[in-house]
Design brief:
The structure is a homodimer.
Chain A: H1 4-16, H2 32-47, E1 51-54, E2 60-64, E3 74-78, H3 92-107, E4 116-120, H4 134-139, H5 145-150, H6 159-166, E5 181-187, H7 192-195, E6 200-206, E7 208-217, E8 221-222, H8 234-250, E9 257-259, E10 263-266, E11 272-273, E12 276-285, H9 288-304, E13 311-320, E14 323-324, H10 327-340, E15 344-349, H11 354-358, E16 364-369, H12 385-403
Parallel strand pairs in A: 3-4, 3-5, 5-16, 6-15
Antiparallel strand pairs in A: 1-2, 2-4, 6-14, 6-16, 7-12, 7-13, 8-11, 9-12, 10-12
Helix pairs in contact in A: 1-3, 1-12, 3-12, 8-9, 10-12
Bound molecules: N-(aminocarbonyl)-beta-alanine (URP) (2 copies).
Binding site for Zn(2+) 2 (chains A, B): 90, 125, 377
Keywords (chains A, B): Hydrolase, Metal-binding, Zinc
Domain Peptidase M20 dimerisation (chains A, B): 207-308
């Protein structure tokens, strides 16, 4: 059993780093807050006798040595970055539970056959730098390092510059090493487990995602002197597109999701008809065919904006395939749940996770715990200490079982 | 006759201050660029022997003394601030033409009966600080100085702080003094004069304006885990509102205008259903009754958003009444046009101007020149040197006639 109080106290400490007045956290990838959280994680790890390596994407690998260094290690972990005005558990819970797991093994003087590696993936959220899961994507061969280092935030700062700025660009290339099994523990970020009063989600699959950047170019004009029919208004065109994107989501109920999370207006002045809107669009669905249909509908909607005298350019920046997790990995978690006397159900994740990418190169699966009302990507994200404890225990026994093989 | 080359060269110099790569200008009110433009205007004025006073709103009053200091002066002027990514003539043309007028009187050793005051009004555009015409509004008694000093930009910097930062908070209270007549020369910012190949617009009236700030509050949610029907999406609600605002404009053709120029999304992250959108709405029309109807329709549209589970708060921040200019003042410009052999037509301004406020306390009117394709509030704003010259000559003779009375 893990030490539930110690786990909760590390979560409470991490919640201070980037803490917001409303009780959430803004700890954007490679920001100063991220640096502080990383340093704390590293210091805790070194104090406990683990090693800590950083790769060229800033991914941190904390290793507790097993008996047999020639065997492939077992991996666990998640991410310490957050959304802007995000919650205190998304990502950081999986990292702190992984640390707690390693500390528990120390406390009980348990030697494992295999090394156990706790990973903190850089820029999982995709909030500061799009797309999400960028660094696990490089590590697993989805993206080149050059591509990833050149991704820029809103201010034009690249991932490479941001890594240097916080001192987290490691020497070792971000490239996968052999992994025996990988487990990520995460909050569900949806309402199902809490609604059904189930302790643990055994995640068997994750939805696919397609992300787009849309640039709508109209023509700036004076709001007082430009008659309505003469306008080429990028903002009203954007509004038309936004309602169509929403409709595409509704056309793919119950599983489809269509979201515009970001929109930036130029010149963004009250008495100027906007010349430009740059926005995101993202679609999610468990089936690739549905994503194809959604993407086609987006292109059609964008082309239709020509009737408003504007030009809409659609760029796909992220194509994240639906995946299925490894059955043998899931079986270890199922066995752990049974041994611990918890309730569990199989689930599909609507959120993307680094471990989805890891599953392309190694046996992997995920463990979910409930979160209140399914609220996530929100300062109001909450979990109960007992949920936290149960998830970490399932993680402990899943990882331990694999590490003794 | 004014010196057309000198006028053009001052415009060219001013276009460097805040000049943008695309050939426009970003010289926001009370920014460092504004300070530099003000300093240049002041230095040129002092060199030419004029006095320069600054009031508590940063309004600059440059005075060329007449024979009789007890008579009310004649006023002319406009503003040196610009929109973000704005043009090289909006406002600055009227100020530089006023300076040229005073220099021309010097060159010709013309003594006037009355003083002539060239004014540079602070924050005409309303881009950095809403509403527009803020400082002429204080000067003419529309707004209190406390209210105006407390208006804040997007970063929370107030007008009072910004005045201090650039050293343009004068001692003298911003309060009107007696004015015999006031003329503002400005680009039309619409296409009519160019389309009809007319030199001069004699502005007899200006449309009313109503400006609003709308805050739409939904609930931040994870874009992957939150089913479409469970969302309280502030952005899709905003999109619905934006199309309704556009429709309100179309319902009041040909004169009605409805514009959303500004929208800011929170948290503005690609994979978060937005919790909040704050946007502007503005309506314009020559008739107050039509503005009332537009405002009522806005409230209805905002209330309708409750069906989406969001709350829309509508705040009116600016109520700018339609005005008619002074017939006697217009007559002097008409006489000038005739004497100079130019063509002219009476016009209504869709844009607001400081001189609309001045017309509440003194006889006032405006003179327009064409601008290419009516493009304004855009970096592509252009005028021809000969248009510039003709407008300045009409201004010269309008002001001179009044100043000799
Ligand atoms: N788990 C999570 O919130 N990941 C961020 C990427 C996504 O939006 O799916
Ligand atoms: N003339 C001008 O562009 N004024 C700014 C205020 C308005 O938008 O009417």
């Amino acid at each position: 059993r893990i030490n539930a109080d110690r786990l909760w106290s590390t979560l409470t400490m991490m919640a201070q780093i980037g803490g917001t007045p409303a009780g959430g956290v803004t700890r954007l990838a490679l920001s100063d807050e991220d640096r502080i959280a990383r340093n704390l994680l590293r210091d805790w790890s070194l104090e406990a006798g683990f090693s800590c390596d950083v790769d060229s994407m800033g991914n941190m690998f904390i290793r507790r040595a097993g008996k047999n260094p020639t065997l492939a290690p077992v991996m666990t972990g998640s991410h310490v970055d957050s959304q802007p005005l995000g919650g205190n558990y998304d990502g950081i819970y999986g990292v702190m539970a992984g640390l707690e797991l390693l500390r528990t093994l120390n406390d009980n003087d348990i030697e494992t056959e295999r090394d156990i590696v706790l990973v903190n993936w850089t820029n999982e959220e995709g909030a500061r730098f799009a797309p999400a899961m960028l660094a696990s994507g490089v590590w697993t061969g989805q993206f080149s390092e050059e591509y990833a280092h050149a991704r820029a935030d809103r201010d034009g700062i690249t991932v490479g510059e941001a890594l240097d700025a916080i001192g987290y660009r490691g020497e070792r290339p971000a490239r996968a090493f052999p992994i025996h099994a990988c487990y990520e523990l995460h909050i569900e970020q949806g309402p199902i487990l809490e609604d059904e009063a189930i302790d643990i989600g055994l995640v068997r699959a994750a939805m696919g995602q397609r992300w787009f950047t849309i640039t709508i170019d109209g023509f700036a004009a004076h709001a007082g002197t430009t008659p309505m029919p003469s306008r080429r208004d990028a903002l009203t065109a954007f509004a038309e597109l936004a309602l169509k994107v929403e409709a595409i989501g509704y056309q793919h109920l119950p599983d489809g999701r269509a979201t515009i999370g970001m929109a930036n207006v130029t010149p963004n002045s009250r008495n100027v008809v906007p010349s430009r809107v740059v926005c995101s669009v993202e679609f999610r669905h468990p089936q690739s065919e549905a994503l194809d249909a959604m993407e086609a509908a987006l292109h059609q909607a964008a082309e239709h904006l020509a009737a408003r005298g504007v030009n809409a350019h659609v760029e796909r920046i992220f194509d994240y395939a639906p995946i299925a997790f490894d059955a043998a990995s899931l079986a270890r978690s199922e066995a752990a749940v049974a041994a611990l006397g918890y309730s569990a159900k199989p689930m599909v994740s609507g959120a993307g996770h680094d471990t989805c990418y890891v599953s392309n190169i190694a046996p992997a699966s995920m463990i979910f715990i409930p979160c209140e009302k399914g609220i996530s990507h929100n300062e109001a994200e909450r979990i109960l200490p007992e949920w936290s404890e149960k998830g970490a225990n399932v993680l402990l026994h899943s990882v331990l079982a694999a590490a003794q093989e």
